[in-house]
Amino acid sequence: MSERKGDVLVLDKINRGFGSGAARLEVLKGVSLSVRSGEMVALVGPSGCGKSTLLHIAGLLEKADGGDVVIDGKAANSLGDDARTAIRRSTIGFVYQYHHLLREFSAAENVMLPQMIAGEGRRPARRRADELLASVGLAKRAEHRPAELSGGEQQRVAVARALANKPKLLLADEPTGNLDERTADEVFALLQNLVRDSGVAALIATHNVSLAQRMDRRVKLHEGVIQAL
């Protein structure tokens, strides 16, 4: 699959299976997909079809059995663990269905942490955290711990955390799946605005048909292959 100008993520003929012999299950069968800067792509498909596996491969959390993963122009599938970790820290942001915030830390500290792990100082990390929390409407909740926040507020913190290191690629796995309809709509609108403003490339797995229809492009994972919708 050839890269287009502006492509941040290119998945080229990705294969992934589990098990061995007659029991082996091929989950991804030559999947090719690209996402460019500022674009939101919806990844849809039934539960168990391999959406999360595909996101894990795109995010360098697991390796494909075959094919290439190119992130911001760098072929990554064959890189060692240290190099893959460096790309994840500097280039990729993740949002999950369950926010996975650290409960003993405040909202601000949760957004500061990935920055400090990447080598940022505490003061600039706090400034960035405050800016991001303000952008998601939580400026007055920065010192609150997750238990003191609503589900929607916690997911907003998770979005802010995902953008903390100014990633070029955002991967989201059912980011509104644990929220009620109104809150899900609010969080998605927020995410959409942040993608537009930052120019990040976003690949978002979702079961929510109405949200998928609001994205720039929709693809379906069906029996291990990608289908355009």
Percentage of residues in strands: 25-35%
Query: End-to-end distance, in Å?
Result: 19 Å
Secondary-structure class? alpha/beta
Order of helices and strands: EEEHEEHEHHHEHEHEE
Let me know the average pLDDT: 90
List unreliable stretches of 5+ residues.
Answer: none
Number of DSSP-assigned strands: 10
What's the arrangement of strands in the largest beta sheet? Answer: 6-7-8-3-9-10
Put simply, the count of helices is 7
Radius of gyration: 17 Å
Query: Can you give the helix content as a percent range?
Result: 25-40%
Which outline best applies? globular
Largest sheet: 6 strands, mixed
Can you walk me through this structure?
α5 runs parallel beside α6 (181-198). With 229 residues, this protein is α/β, with parallel strands linked by helices. The chain is built from seven helices and ten strands. The model has no long low-confidence stretch (mean pLDDT 90). The protein is 34% helix and 27% strand. The strands form two sheets. It has a six-stranded mixed β-sheet with strand order 6-7-8-3-9-10. Strands 2-1-4-5 form a four-stranded antiparallel β-sheet, with helices on one face.
